[in-house]
């Protein structure tokens, strides 16, 4: 693999890269808890608020592979610095937004930069450290990724409550400047194996189009749960994604200087690593959004309290990430990934057994810890497996592929989790609304319709509204809504556990890197 001499500034470079990745990833979740404040300030509709998140998610996913290729061609340090500057400017523009439309545009600009930092990070670290230190460095960076995913509600809740919604973006300005200075001073500019040849512009366009159509189609389904998969607004984009993917593969097979060398897929270990990344995104990172909803909307915790309790999951990344990185030099990566994935899956199953209408963190914390141990150890072997499965000049693309598959998996998971939640919630309401003995039939019918209409995210707010609490059956309605939500949430947990178990099985079967008998 590509290595550099032991630059004494390499650990400072790791700090710079970690800061950039932390900012880019936390901005996918930190905005969630600020949405009510944004809605008031900018007079936004529910659909508008969804696009504050989706504008970032789509652009972030679409550009990951393009940034990886640009880094291979023109230098990863240069591209990282450019992406950092774009991200920082975009953050400032976000904070200055005076209308929801401008906020959508500026979030997309911010995502352009965030995507670059994420895509280039692993390859920069992979080429800045030698074999013995690489696992530790990647473990530390993976810890930051795990921490950023779960700490968004904590940081976002504190900033919004203490200052304003704009502060979740302005905090990136000083951090961005510090990271920029550190990147310029400390990130090495040594790239021994740089890609050669011209830029495959058609390949880039087809790559971006494929990911855009796929993610946008999934987001359309997420935003409109009532639309079937055959609805043109959903199926049309998914079919377009399949067509563009076929054209992209054709282009890569025929181009003189393809954007993505398809030879990297000759490695079973690489295929295994990107598939594990997909199922990790689908089964774990998508789960956090619904966990936060459960804790805030139903268990009664504030955004700050929710984030604080989720540290029992994310905090393990800081402790176990570097340890897992060290172990990647000693054990087969497939076994390590299977252990972590099955640990997460086991924790999700345990949580599904602990969820009741009165469950709080006091009952759920053992499952949180088990999930945290698994999530804290899974990223280092996954990234190391991908990067050690390809030739040195393809490390940037390998890093981009891991990030892309994880983001697509996240979009896939959120859609199916939302469907499972809605199905369980509606089935629970249908089963238990008949328990409202003594309530007029017309009132029960109307209330049932309203609860279905507002959905599982807002059902508890309706159950605790003034109109319902003034009735003699208010407590019963609140119990029914909580049980209905729990029914859907339990289905999510079980489905996510299946995703992680599938990922673990794939890791054992396909990933042979690491350990004494390492093969690609």
Automatic annotation (TrEMBL):
UniProt topology in membrane: Multi-pass membrane protein
A cellular component term, taken from the record's GO annotations: plasma membrane
Pfam families named among the record's database cross-references: MFS_1
Keywords, alphabetical: Cell membrane, Membrane, Transmembrane, Transmembrane helix, Transport
Subcellular compartments: Cell membrane
SUPFAM superfamilies assigned to the protein according to its UniProt record, in alphabetical order: MFS general substrate transporter (SSF103473)
Classification via PANTHER family: MAJOR FACILITATOR SUPERFAMILY MULTIDRUG TRANSPORTER MFSC
Family, per entry: Belongs to the major facilitator superfamily. EmrB family.
Name this polypeptide is given: MFS transporter
The organism of origin for this protein: Pseudolactococcus insecticola
